[in-house]
Amino acid sequence: MDRTGQQLALAVVVPVLNEAANVAQLRTRLAAALAEIPHEVIFVDDGSTDGTQGVVEALALGDPSTRLIRRHGRRGLSSAVVEGMCATVAPVVAVIDGDLQHDETILPALYRAIATDGAELAVGTRYGAGGSTGAWDPRRAAISRYATRLAAVVMKTRLSDPLSGFFAIRRDVLLGLVPRLSLVGYKLLLDIVASAGRPLDLAEVPYTFAERSAGESKLDSAVAMDYVELLVEKTVGRWIPAKLVLFSAVGSTGVIVHMAVLALLGLLGADFTAAQAGAVGVAMIYNFTLNNRLTYRDRRLTGAAWWTGLASFIVLCSIGAFANVGVGSFIYDLSGGGWVLGGLAGIAVGTVWNFVATSWLTWRRR
Ligand SMILES: Nc1nc2c(ncn2[C@@H]2O[C@H](COP(=O)(O)OP(=O)(O)O)[C@@H](O)[C@H]2O)c(=O)[nH]1
Ligand SMILES: [Mg+2]
Question: 50-70 burial string, b = 16+ CB within 10 Å, else e?
Answer without folding.
Answer: eebbebbeebbeeeebbbbbe
